[in-house]
Amino acid sequence: MNNSIRMLFIALAVGLIIFSVIFGGKVTFNEQMPIYDGLRNTSAIIFAVMGAWIALLYPGKLSQAFGKKPYKEKADDIEQINRLFRPMIYSTIILMVVIGVSFAVPLAKQIDYLHQYKEIFRAVSFGTIAFLTLLQFWSVILTLVPGDTIKDDLDDIRSREEMLERMKPRRKKH
Fold it and tell me: CB neighbours (10 Å) of residue 133?
């Protein structure tokens, strides 16, 4: 991705998170919890789908990556597996944060001392939601990687077969 486009996306993401923190203080936790629930459900789905992709479509790559070949010979396989695991890692992070918030919020509501800071906690929580939502978007985009990898593999097979076909001796017809 072009550096200027990357910087634009980062600037927009940081702006969205700051905007969410500034205006999120008025959004109650009861209004925020369905968003956390949606993030949790989506993360669980992404985790399951990516696990299935890896287990069903790439068992060979897994065995090659963990095989006895020298690292240089299996570096490409390892990089492909890393790309497949990224959405799972991001989904795990999202799940951990959501589960933590779901546990901590009810407990924090029981501590009278913290009530005076509830708007700050709400703002930070809503900023967290903004960050997790952007991370979730990125995870969803990364779920497209296996399809692209399959397409690349199929293109390699097709070009190899075409090359073999061109290399075959042709009989002249009389």
Answer: 19
